[in-house]
Automatic annotation (TrEMBL):
Name of the molecule in the record: WYL domain-containing protein
Signal peptide: none
Gene3D superfamilies reported for this sequence: Winged helix-like DNA-binding domain superfamily/Winged helix DNA-binding domain
High-level lineage: Bacteria, Bacillati, Bacillota, Clostridia, Lachnospirales
GO molecular function: DNA-binding transcription factor activity
Organism: Sporofaciens musculi
Keywords (A to Z) from UniProt: Plasmid, Transcription, Transcription regulation
Amino acid sequence: MKVDRLVSIIMILLEKKRVSAQKLADTFEVSPRTIYRDIDTISMAGIPIRSTSGVGGGFEIMPDYKVDKKVFSADDLSALLMGLSNLYNIVRGDELIHALAKVKSFIPADRAKDIELKVNQICIDLSPWVSNRNTQSYLEIIKTALQENRAISFSYIDRHGNKTTRTVEPYQLVLKSNHWYFQGYCYSRNDYRLFRLSRMTDLQMKKDTFVPRAYQKPILDIAEIVETLQIEIKIRIHKSIMDRVLDFCAYEHFTPDDDEYYIVDFPFIDRDYYYDILLSFGDKCECLEPLHIREKIKYKVHNIVALYDN
């Protein structure tokens, strides 16, 4: 991974006085031309690197520029470790292990215990209790394809159950609302598409590489769209499902209705997804108004009953 290689080059140059381009190329198993590009990137980031030619020449960080372990405070190190540790819980990879090891090397021995306590104050684990077993292995394949600019092929099942075969150039992994997606350029659609990993099967990485094209990031913030579609409905719920309803609206929207029930102003969009949420509450939830939403729920419940009667 390029970022990991850049950090490693900086660490080597901080430890040694001068290192040749060929030595760095051999260390990271890349071409000297790649090393020269990496050095330019590091220089543009503000770290002054001097190049000398001839016998004994190479790259070195200018003597007047000094970075030592004191550049990071205990809070800085805690924040870095907290972020890297929780990211590793979500996306595993050798590059994260290496980055964690490098950051830990900056921790003074007398502050190690205090920093460890701070790091452990927050734990982020977005993995569901029960999940699609393919997701983690597919993440690894897509990560490799992203790093190596290799297209991937897979079968895709849309929300209506239609199955198609796709070949896609991957450009970005996205974690949104506890679900993994990736954004890529789809050859069959000649456009960018956002694919949900749980709807993919038979994922394979192509051998040939592609030249990255101008990338269009997916639109993930749909707050304005939701605001135009969303209404509030009144539901009556039993207290036993309060914790589940609180996932969708704040406690300020709850009004007690005797000792066992609450009336809730519930955010709702007239789409199947939201009806499925209400139906998932079972007989602990009743839609009171508006009438057309209540009638549509009755219709769906009637169809479920008819299914089981048959």
